[in-house]
Amino acid sequence: MVKRIFLGSDHAGFEMKDRIKEHLEGRGSQVRDLGTNGPDSVDYPDLAHAVADSVVNEQGSLGIV
User: Fold this and answer.
1) What is the pTM of this model?
2) Which of 14, 19, 43, 56 is most enclosed, with most CB atoms within 10 A?
């Protein structure tokens, strides 16, 4: 069973990330949003790295970027 799902996106995908988060939480999943939280330009690799590190460090978790 998945303990937690980590989410991350760049500025181009933050609205979709929020919809995915809503959907997963509505199904009872424990979700941790690692950003970004707005339309300002950010570097995708930084957020992808944060999600990957979180998944590696929390056994049984998943990540969506």
Assistant:
1) 0.91
2) 14
